[in-house]
Amino acid sequence: MLVGNSPTVNIRITGDPLPTSKLGDAVHCFPPDIGQGVNSALEDVCILNQALSQTNDIISNALPLFESLRSPDIKPLILLAQTAFPWQYNQDIPRKRLWTINFFIRLLLSRILPFIFSPPAFILIQNHQLSYGEIWAMAQRTTIYIYVFGLMLMSGSLAWFLYDIGWF
Ligand SMILES: Cc1cc2nc3c(=O)[nH]c(=O)nc-3n(C[C@H](O)[C@H](O)[C@H](O)COP(=O)(O)OP(=O)(O)OC[C@H]3O[C@@H](n4cnc5c(N)ncnc54)[C@H](O)[C@@H]3O)c2cc1C
Questions:
Q1: With helix as H, strand as E and coil as C, how does 73-86 read?
Q2: Which range has the worst mean pLDDT, 17-21, 78-82, 99-103, 144-148?
Q3: Do 74 and 103 belong to one domain?
Q4: Is the CB of 36 under 6 A from ligand 1?
Q5: Co-location of 78 and 99 in the same domain
Q6: 69 CB less than 6 Å from ligand 1?
């Protein structure tokens, strides 16, 4: 079977297909907005190296292990690329403004109540000790808390208003 047709690569393989896996941009390609393209590609390489060490360099065992070790972080990474800082090229001014408001609300809340609210994902990404999965989970948890906090604020204001006009 002919698997390569570039001018310099021409490989002919017989028998079972060789196991393959994807790394770097080939698996998580996204715009450079969050500045994680190189870091995440290098992380892929480190984890592949770890998988190879654990399997005595047996590639057919190493690649499934690599994928099982790496995949939990890949989806969060792609979601972070879509949400952490998506409008840096002013593609959509109204949505960029909404994103900026959201960013500063999270920043403010995380400064006032750091044990409840996490800083915005774009700031968390700078912390190399957190995995993309952990950052995504923290951002999601803060989103839920913001909704709950907003709902409590609106209910409180409504109760106050009803009390003020003599409803109860
Ligand atoms: C404009 C721009 C700005 C960026 N800014 C940042 C930044 O600030 N910070 C950051 O972390 N990341 C940034 N990135 C993203 C970063 O460059 C990529 O995420 C990173 O290079 C991915 O590495 P990779 O090895 O997966 O792919 P690549 O670096 O694309 O390497 C793939 C290589 O494979 C070669 N190749 C392709 N096809 C074949 C073939 N058939 N045969 C042989 N060779 C082949 C290509 O020529 C290339 O050299 C930016 C990207 C762009 C486009």
A1: HHHHHHHHHHHCCC
A2: 17-21
A3: no
A4: yes
A5: no
A6: no
> What pLDDT does 15 receive?
64
Q: How many domains does the chain have?
A: 2
Mean pLDDT for the stretch of residues 48-76: 95
Q: Using a 6 Å cutoff on CB, does residue 24 contact ligand 1?
A: yes
Probe target for ligand 1 pocket from 3, 11, 21, 25, with the most ligand atoms within 8 Å of CB? 25
Tell me how crowded residue 58 is: count the other CB atoms within 10 A of its CB.
11
Domain boundary among 83, 105, 139: 83
40 Cβ below 6 A of ligand 1: no
The torsion of the CA quartet 129, 136, 45, 54, rounded to 10 degrees, works out to 80
Task: Report CA(39)–ligand 1 centroid distance (Å).
Answer: 12
What is the pTM assigned to this prediction? Answer: 0.82
Q: Are 141 and 117 in contact (CB under 8 A)?
A: no
